[in-house]
Design a protein that fits this description.
- By secondary structure, the chain is of the alpha/beta class.
- The chain folds into two domains: 407 residues, ANL, N-terminal domain (Rossmann fold); 97 residues, GMP Synthetase, Chain A, domain 3 (2-Layer Sandwich), CATH 3.30.300.
- Helix content is 29%, strand content 24%.
- The chain contains 16 helices and 27 strands.
- The strands form six sheets. It has a nine-stranded mixed β-sheet, with helices on both faces. A five-stranded antiparallel β-sheet has the order 1-18-19-21-22. Strands 5-4-6-7 form a four-stranded parallel β-sheet, with helices on both faces.
- β6, α6 and β7 form a beta-alpha-beta unit.
- The longest helix is centred in the N-terminal third of the chain and has 18 residues.
- The two termini are 41 Å apart.
């Protein structure tokens, strides 16, 4: 068993809104949230006061402890206020992808028995249709304004008493994001107030932001990575969060320059853009102190290329998953120059890990040996909503969560994630990691992006199949060139056997490759 080298942290026995905004009075007029597109700013005093008034209005509307409220919105400065208002009123918040179809949204609403929706007017039609599908929704609120719907802005004038929901941080669910886990079916992940708040405390020893720091929130708040790294963590310590609704490179670069951003939490596609896109040189990014990448594997060479271009320490990585609230590993800010290339970091405080054999799951492996990563700690989810069997398959009776990820630890405790158990390609009995081939493909000057999946040849063998996005400068890049480039650099069993050229690699908002979509195309 591998243990964190950091001292344990006591469980944080507070509702998440208290754990995050408990020091709001201390930070007072300091900017908490800034709209990165129009500059609208909310101070800590305003965020605290606004979320309390909206909580009062929600309670007056009928929101009660035990209810589920669906928060369906892109990143805005209203999102955190809505989230904390809902939890203060006693609700659990299920976050919804703003690009979800009405059918996908309706399925989520039905699965978690949501009674309330908070959305924005451009998404109102989808929310209405989803509510019709689910049939249990009592009311749809909007963050901005729309005829026939109560607005969070109007709720700020509520004179109703502030709700005093009796929240048990250890048992009551604060957030209910949906995750596919190690299988393809989205499931509601029950994260209690204590689990989320304690994970913030666990991360603090290795990585934190405080007054004077400016964090750019471009990854979505609805995803647990954004919810923790870009919303809860910086607001807990008095940093300023500059909010963007989506990633558009020019807007993103302008926000870094104009708002003097100090820290970036991103996914690998953004690192790729920072490393390779010619637009980057047209902006002043000198305020940046560090970049952390998570949510998907980041190639070590790409991390170095990005850092060298921007004059920063190597891009650090972090590791976790929705079911882990989400963090378990991070490259500490004070160790970014010493961390070995490609590592996702060291265990954060209060976290234990095992690496077990893929062939013999009961066998623990030592440093340098690759196997499935198992995690135990206070951040392990309460379980999957309404799915006790799938919860039991994910978390064993000793409390170890089986991540489905393959990795190994070096002698100094740095974790390296090789790939997903389910994504490993078995070519004639040899295991091939798609992430390794993807990282290699990205070093080709004519390739802008790439994804690799397993496909079956005429003999029934599973073979590596690359889906490649050409650089605009290399429109004539051929299948043979791609295959030869890889063949010259890997063992024979790892060679790419098929190449398909595509316009874009399908990715989740978190940056993860949607391999299932690629499989469905082939």
């Amino acid at each position: 068993m591998f243990r964190s080298e950091y001292a344990d942290v006591p469980p944080v026995e507070l509702p998440i809104h208290e754990a995050v905004l408990g020091r709001a009075a201390e930070f007072g007029d300091a900017p908490a949230l800034i709209d990165g597109t129009d500059g609208t700013t909310l101070s800590y005093e305003q965020v605290d006061r606004f979320h309390r008034r909206i909580a009062a209005a929600l309670a007056e509307a009928g929101v009660r402890k035990g209810d589920v409220l669906a928060l369906h919105s892109p990143n805005t400065i209203a999102f955190p206020t809505a989230f904390y208002a809902a939890t203060r009123a006693g609700a659990s918040v299920t976050t919804v992808h703003p690009l979800a179809t009405a059918e996908e949204f309706g399925k989520q609403l039905k699965d978690c028995s949501a009674r309330w929706i908070v959305t924005v007017s451009p998404l109102l039609d989808t929310a209405r249709r989803a509510a019709d599908i689910a049939s249990g929704v009592q009311e749809i609120f909007v963050c901005d304004s729309a005829p026939g719907h109560r607005s969070l802005i109007d709720m700020l004038g509520s004179t109703a008493p502030e709700p005093e929901a009796a929240i048990d941080p250890a048992e009551d669910v604060a957030a209910l994001p949906y995750s596919s886990g190690t299988t393809g079916t989205p499931k509601g992940v029950m994260l209690t107030h204590r689990q989320i708040a304690t994970n913030l405390a666990q991360l603090n020893a290795a990585i934190s932001a405080g007054p004077g720091d400016r964090i750019l929130a471009v990854l979505p708040f609805f995803h647990i990575y954004g919810l923790t790294a870009l919303m809860n963590a910086p607001l807990r310590h008095g940093a300023t969060v500059v909010v963007l609704p989506r990633f558009e490179l020019e807007t993103f670069l302008a926000a870094i320059q104009n708002h003097r951003i100090t820290g970036l939490y991103v996914a690998p596609p953004i690192v790729l853009a920072l490393a390779k896109h010619p637009l980057v040189t047209q902006y002043d990014l000198s305020s940046l102190k560090y970049i952390i990448s998570a949510a998907a594997p980041l190639d070590a060479r790409l991390a170095v290329a990005c850092a060298e271009r921007l004059g920063l320490p190597p891009v650090g990585q972090a590791y976790g998953m929705t079911e882990l609230s989400p963090g378990t590993h991070v490259v500490p800010l004070d160790s970014m120059r010493e961390a070995p290339p490609g590592t996702v970091g060291k265990l954060i405080a209060g976290t234990d890990m095992r690496i077990v054999s893929l062939d013999d799951p009961g066998k623990d492996l030592g440093p340098g040996e690759s196997g499935e990563i198992l995690i135990r700690g206070p951040q392990v989810m309460k379980g999957y909503l309404g799915r006790p069997d799938e919860t039991a398959a994910m978390i064993d009776e000793d409390g170890w969560l089986h991540t489905g990820d393959v990795g190994h630890v070096d002698e100094d405790g740095w974790l390296f994630v090789v790939d997903r158990v389910k994504e490993l390609i078995k070519y004639k009995g040899f295991q091939v990691a798609p992430a390794e081939l993807e990282a290699l493909l990205l070093t080709h000057p004519g390739i802008a992006d790439a994804a690799v999946i397993g496909a079956y040849d005429d003999d029934g063998n599973e073979v590596p199949h690359a889906h490649v996005v050409r650089q605009p400068s290399a429109p004539g890049l051929s299948e043979g060139e791609v295959m030869m480039y890889v063949a010259e650099r890997v063992a024979p069993y790892k060679r790419i056997r098929r190449v398909t050229f595509i316009d874009a690699v399908p990715r989740a908002a978190s940056g993860k490759i949607l391999r299932r979509e690629l499989r469905e195309r082939t």
